[in-house]
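dumping the sequnces here before i forget
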Amino acid sequence: MSKLIASAAIKAAHVLVKRAEVMLEKAIAEKGKDFVFEFPDTAFYLPMIYAMTAFPVKTLADMKVALAMTREMLHEEPDEKLWKPYLGEALDSGMATLFAEEIILALRYMDGLEPVTDPETGYVYNGFITDTIQRNLGIALVDGRMPGFAAIIGAAPDEDTAVKIVRELQEKNILIFLSGQAKDKNGKLTNVTRQLLSKGVTLGWETYIVPLGPDTEHTLYALDWAIRASLIFGGKKPGDYREHLKYQKDRVFAFAIALGEMDEIKWSTGGGAINMGFPAICDTDVPVIHPTGVCTYEHVVKEFDHDKIVQKAIEVRGLKVTVEKPPIPVSFGPAFEGERIRKEDMFIEFGGQRSPAFEWVRTKELHEIEDGKVIIVGTDVEERYKKGGVMPMAVVIDVAGRKMQKDFEAIIERKLHHNINEAQGLWHMGQRDIVWMRISNQAYKDGITLEHIGVIHNTMSHNRFKSIVDKVQVTLYVDEKDVLALQDEARKVYKERDHRLAGLTDESVDTFYSCLLCQSFAPSHVCVISPERLGLCGAYNWLDTRAAFEIDPTGGNQPIMKGEALDAAKGRWAGVDTYLKSNSAGAVESLNLYTIMDNPMTSCGCFECIVAIVPEANGIMLVQRGHTGMTPAGMKFSTLAGTVGGGTQNPGFMGIGVNFITSKKFLFADGGIKRIVWMTKNLKERLGEDFKKRAEEEGVPDLLDKIADESIAEESEKLMEYLASVGHPALEMEPMF
Amino acid sequence: MKNNGHKPAKTANKEAAIVLEWGDSRGYETCFTRAEKMKPCPIGESGACCKVCHMGPCRLVGTKAEEEGRGICGATLPVIAARNLARMVAAGTACHGDHGRDMAFTLLAVAEGEAKDFKIKDVKKLYRVAEIIGVAAEGRPVLDVAKDVALKFIEDFGRQRGEVSYVRRAPKKTQGRWKKWDIVPRGIDREIAETLDRTTMGMDADADSILNHALKAAVANGWGGSMISTDITDVLFGTPSPVKAEASLGIFKDDEVNIVIHGHEPNLAEMIVDVVYEPEMIEYAKSKGAKGINLGGMCCTANEVMMRHGIPTAGGFTNQELGIMTGLIEAMVVDVQCIMPALTEVSKKFHTKIVTTSSKVRMPGATHVQFDEHNAKDIAREIVKLAIDNYPNRKAEGSHVTETFPVIAGFSHEYIEYMQGGRWRASFRPLNDAIMAGRIRGVVGLAGCDNPRVPSTGMHKFLAIELIKNDVLVVSTGCSSASCGTAGFLTPEMAMENAGPGLREVCEAIGIPPILHLGSCVDNTRILTIATAMAAEGGLSDEIGGMPAVGIAPEFITEKAISIGCYFAASGVPVIFGGESPVGASREVTRIMTEVWFERFKGALHFEPDPEKILAMTFDYIDKAREALKLRKYEPGKFGAERVLMDMAARREIEKAAVPHAGVGGINESEN
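..and the predicted 3d for all of it:
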């Protein structure tokens, strides 16, 4: 019965709090109470404690305060007979467990014991998950690429079962965290990470399999990741624990699959997870907790059949997964995008400067093509393919549809990369005429043929672009002369397209598009996407959103009629304001697209880049996600990001997509790119030629050199010195305030 | 209830029956023997007797009394029956009102530093209360807040216009019904006074109008005096959370000084609880040859000190004389309400001293020690000493029973909220979910007195068992708690052995008994605030009315009970009282109190002596409410919620900025 679970959780919480206290005392004795600690790359201190209590743990002395609070959450174990209620107490103990585990892991980090290196395999676990990774995944979290999160704790009875469960989760695009250990069917203490490694499964963020550490306590890293979703994307205030936990329950679709026997620490960590609305599905004969209410559905269930356990977990968490898979003999899904194919595992490759290759999407009339048809043009095709090695390859995709427009070609084309990459054992890089594809030995063995490349594009183009594509026909050319001949034709089209796109301006259209995809995580954020300002995640431009609206008229991208221009310089339109009022849950009344100073755009949290004002320099700085160094604003990216996300307007701070920087509308009302006084080297390199072109247009051809980067200054004083020495134009511009 | 054998069973409690039989054999009089000797006056019992003026008393009897019967003044039977009921409500509201008033003045005395022996134990609750009634609290000193809260509550009693403070705490829709039918009480005393005024000779002659005002006076009890009392008691003495205790006439110890605290108000009782553990007192008891001091409670004082300190209870109202007949009680300390005048009579046969402590309750033959909160502990010590001094006088005479029953008590609103999710996730979601899924069929508040005219406590026991068997969660208060406790029903094991499969699953998940002891009779207000929180939580009714919930007082005796029944009816709860109807003479009054009230408030007050019928009516009300709310049809052993699997689009549509309900705050963290 569930009293057993409660007793175990309550007991383990006592043990862990005690352990944390002992470890902390030792650390204080060694390092002193003012010793400062932070997890790698986070702005949220010890995230769980911070989100729940608003108490920022910065030093060992702070940890002591936090542990004292934790101790208050401990309770007596329920009696054997005539017990007092235990559910609330067990859940408190669960939270106490998470607090204690957070402190224990922090102390282990201090001692260099985290992330753990597996003694058996030498594998280095992920350890703490950084804010950067969290934000990198932002768009995947909301567009269905990662509809859920599974924490697998323990070990499967055997390696094949471990692989089977993980593959099933991958196929459903569920992100998998691994932690803890248990005995396998031979009584050997092991864990899923080792079981997967021994089967050669590629682990890591790219494959959606993230081993956190070998102990149950390491599960906390996953929960720390989850709780930051409500801080980063949800904009929930630290300490507003009810809101945080409600957000977790309603929007973070996580669950635990506990494989192998349970112990007290597993139960108490599970108790912490149940606080967050995350249920546990166990493969052993455990007491169940079926009545609902803390979690959305059951809290603890058991499922002995490993063929059904994933399905059961998905049901219990209330997670709807729609997977559209082409009829091919290998697994398919975004989780397989990250798989690498090394040379020795490769069966055959196309392009990548080893052979001529390109991809091209063309619009045709409905009667011109036959839907679903794959044509392979070439000599001795079968024979050459069977030999492996290298082949030329032109992938020409002809699409037809009543709602098809020329502008959508590029959008469909951009997805070809994902189409191929999502197939297990197929690998894809680049686009257009710089494409590079590989098929692995294993995929070949599994029965992948050349025709399957066409089949994949066919199925997926239909799936992804349902309402604009009525017919798709794929032709593969594998003879070099055909490829080269067609390539010239394709190149002409690429050029035309680029030209047309460059001519698209905000003034030339009467409709912008919204992007509400992130509202599943950031309920009050609305992206307004115009031809000259792409989404802040960098994943959606105006054409994308227009196509998305055509595909799904009730979906996450909606047209916004610009209406009357209220302020042409700042980029404010009556239609945009009206739209925002009714779609931002009342959070945003008015928006200026071209300034950072007055009602700037809000952010969900997955911005590629942050623009922040540097008042003393009369300019702004730019830092991209993933930059871990200090900036002249006195804050690292992770801290800056904390002031920008969550769907609020913060004049002087804004999240943007990197490509917006080279738009003519970038801070148009504030003076444009001449305001940039500092940007990271990484950004300088990425923007390169485009930026130089814009700088010339602005009449400052050497602007890029006048802009400081981290090699020149990481703090305000040095920055000012540099700007003065190079005569940066911002110093002479009108004051920003 | 069927009687077994030839002898009429007078109590359904085994220990009580042993003592009673022993007393009977010696010819000692008790409420049971007196009830046997004297049948109720049938005219008065059914509400057909009018004695509000001296032209009468008039009795309207006969087959056509409803249509043709008239008093000397011309009052019809419906008017007379309605007036009688309204006056009972007024008296009940007065009782709980005085109780609440005393608590408010105690709080004021504490705030002004005049009652040094008391302190504010639950500061968090004080601040919550302040917030609800609109007293500024944040950043202010505790005692300043306490003073303003006390004054605001004191104002509620004498207010002439406006609204009683706690009315705003009810669901908006419930308040709307009250406004529509003009039953929002202005001041507690004002509604009592107006009831007496309206119902005297030559006043209101419209039964519906009289009864409507009775509801107003009743709301002044439930959302006034009683609620004030519950909350101030929590503030001063701590908000209860589960404790283990014992219940039975067998709690008294052969070799210790036995003191019983009996009545309703917790002020003196709390002080006695404090002083009996003082080493000097224990030493003093030892100096008189006793091994120690054993404190027990009785009636609702017992509920108060059990909920907060685990002090055992010797049982409910009908056990008070029997307690003395154990011969083991040195002193029975009484304050107010439900103190049988017979106590001093029966005490004469034993060494037991009856100690009265309230100027409102004086008894010839008792020792009076006037309680005064300004000097509380000294008075408590004086009383305990008096009891100790009486220990050497104990005689061998008495009926000793020894069996006791364990009890889990202490389910305050705050703890019930806490137990469903802990301090971080406290809510009523699990309870609402369980009801929606059909695990719990509905909720019954089992309340009210124990009555010697039925086998005392028997109706409570019968209903409690049948209800939980049918997956109905029971919350008990007052002497219903005592009845269930002395029967051994208030244990978590009860769920395993007797609850239906759905209710058992919920009890098992949380670790609770299927019958939750919510406190004393003023604590019925906890049911009101819980129902309000359930409405706010969502998924069931958005007001108290319409919930799959019923109130039952199967052995009601007092005017307080009638007042409680009426405030539940006015709040939207169908209520069924056991026993004969005090308005049974009038079909019209019966119709108004059931059909008309149900239409207006979704509540009703029925009287039904047959326990099987009470049960059937209860299930009927619950199942109809479920149907109206479009909940799953209740099927024992079959439950589950419709699973909604969410894709990304659905997640974007999740109700934006839904605010988690506020409840009355988390569990008291400062005490207990």
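Residues 405-652 of chain B form a domain with the Rossmann fold fold (CATH 3.40.50.2030).
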